[in-house]
Amino acid sequence: MTANPAPSITIDGLTLAYPGKTVLDTVTLAIPRGKITVLAGPNGCGKSTLLRAIRRLHRPAAGRVLLEDIDVADLSEKALARHIGLLAQNPSAPEDMTVEELVRLGRYPHQTMLQRWDAQDTRALEAAMAGTGVASLRDRPLGSLSGGQVQRVWIAMVLAQETEIVCLDEPVNHLDLAHQLDCLDLVRQLNAEFGRTIVLVLHDLNLAARYADQLVFMRDGGVAACGTPDALMTQDLIARVFNVDAMIITDPAYGRPLCLPLRTC
Amino acid sequence: MTAPRARSARQSFAVIIAGLAALLVAAMLVSATVGYRLYGLDQLYQAIFAFDGSEAATVLVNLRLPRAILAPMVGAGLGVAGVLVQTLSRNRIASPDTLGLNAGASLAVVLASATLGITSLTGLSLVAALGALLTSMLVFAIAAGAGGISPIRIVLIGVTIAGLGQSVVQLILTSNEAQMQNLLFWLAGSFVDRPMALAINGLPFIAAGGAIAFALVRPLDALQADDATAVSLGVPVSLVRIGCFLAISLLSGAAVAMAGPVSFVGLVVPHAARRLAGLRHGPLMLAAALIGAIYTTLADVLARFVIYPVEAPVGAVTAVVGGLVLVLLLRGRAA
Predict the structure, then answer these.
(1) Closest residue, chain B, to A105 (C-alpha)
(2) CB pair distance less than 8 Å for B233 and A111
């Protein structure tokens, strides 16, 4: 698994349970390489759990997550962290930490006790800050930034990690409309320019349809449907997955399906 | 393109560290020569390198020198331990006191003195170290026992154990006032009449704690972020917390054995160090060690004069000065 292997994730019969509750029930799903996959579904459907299980933050009761043909359970912490990056939901860091100090953390899995910070680390740090447009903020403490800026800095940190796969758990939560678009455009840019495979959990169905190459609807711990936004955004499926009667129209600007929710059903 | 910038930042940090080191040496010289009696640097030099048995030389070598060496060791240990506790608990108002280590040491000393009649300084310091160690094991066992070592649990359990220890100490002290009178001074922390052997015995523990702390520099940087982020960066979070706990126990245990419970150093010093060194633990802990050493050494000098000609307990001085410094630092931050 060295020089730019073809990364894609295969989730194979993954089951995850807490005592008395099955959170994921034999989920089988393929994450295509170099694409944006969006996990969507109602509250408690297991989409965040699935994302965290892909990154091995949860140990499955059964099933596997395969990175290419390697079971992620067999990888060391650092090796895994060099392949899959995760931007957690509501991540936190000290308010007086500077932008550069936070983005530097992304280099952690690339260093060892003996091999400390080197030119490659500096290159990745600078590229991540430049690519996300936060280089000019480098000495600013996080507490002095706007919510949108802070989210860009976190994305820069994950970018500096230089993983083929980037998972983002509801990255636009708590952001206003402009910053939501800003943040997701940035994610798409990571996908297009840096060739990263993206797995994204999104709450907003219309944002999901707009940014996804592959859309995954989840319900009750399982995959309800998986396909292109055009294939999935149907009145029937949305009623079945979200319990909402909706009208599906084509958005006039981007030609993507747009869901107009009418009433619960 | 940022190489020059990085270099200049590193250079200015090197200047800060060199300045602090010089300040420390100066503070240690002051501590050795200034007090109830004033000595010259020439007398100090003579006492160390050409001991002639004179009264001045005896006082310098047996009384002054040990505290000029013990105080910075204790201060450096507490400064680093303070950074570790604050990162471990993700809480900037936590300190080794918060984990109950000083309370545990005090309780052990009071108990040993009341039941076993231990009064010798060496005996008490050993008991204190044991008390701190046992307390840290207790806090760790409870914190790790139910559902993982979470930062908030560490603080809650530490504060609870500290409160418990303190109240038992008070109970024994008040019920046994006459006998415990001689312990009161120990309980406030002091460097008076400490033999050099204490420094020699304490050194390996301070060194081991420091070595563990500096080995954990990079995972500690990452642990400033939330657990999910730290784990996804590849940090072995539980292992780092265990190592952190061990280092804190070694450093605080050695400190309390050498000086008794000296409060506020571990709380204030990390704040000052962050001002100078930022949030990366390598520079931060180096700065904290030096600032802690300087602060404690100067507090020990000050303790000789605040209620002159009697010596004040150094713990009282570090607390009063530290409280004022902390208020100033926090005010500066808000402004």
Answers:
(1) B222
(2) no
CA distance B58 to B61: 5
CATH, residue B257: 1.10.3470.10
Fold of A9-264: Rossmann fold (3.40.50)
Question: Is residue B3 included in any domain, yes or no?
Answer: no
In a domain, B1, yes or no: no
Q: Which residues of A touch B222 (CB under 8 A)?
A: 105, 108
- Quick check: B303 and B317 in contact, CB under 8 A? yes
Q: Is residue B130 assigned to a domain?
A: yes
Domain span at B98: 14-334
Contact B137/B106 with Cβ under 8 angstroms? Answer: no
Beta bridge partners of A65: A11
Length of chain B measured in residues: 335
Residues of A in contact with B278 (CB under 8 A): 98, 101
Whole-structure pTM value: 0.90
Q: Determine, for residues B222 and A101 on separate chains, whether the beta-carbon distance falls below 8 Å.
A: no
**Could you give the number of structural domains in chain B?**
1
Per the DSSP assignment, residues forming a β-bridge with A258 are A249
CA-only gyration radius of chain A, Å: 19
Task: List the structure tokens of A119.
Answer: 């030119």
DSSP labels, B66-85: HHHHHHHHHHHHHHHHHHHH
Q: Is A196 on the interface with B (CB under 8 A)?
A: no
Number of Cβ atoms within 10 Å of the Cβ of B308? 10
Cβ neighbour number for residue B255 with a 10 Å cutoff: 37
* Residue A46 vs residues A8, A103, A199: alpha-carbon distances, Å: 21, 29, 14
Q: What is the pLDDT along chain A (265 residues), one digit of tens a residue?
A: 344 445 489 999 999 988 888 899 999 999 999 999 999 999 989 999 999 999 999 989 999 999 988 999 999 999 999 999 999 999 999 999 999 999 999 999 999 877 778 899 999 999 999 999 999 999 999 999 999 999 999 999 999 999 999 999 999 988 899 999 999 999 999 999 888 999 999 989 999 999 999 999 999 999 999 999 999 999 999 999 999 999 999 988 888 999 999 998 8
CA–CA separation, A92 vs B151, rounded Å? 14
- Does the residue B7 lie in any domain? no
Is A57's Cβ below 8 Å from some Cβ in B?
yes
CA dist A243 and A246 (Å) reads 9
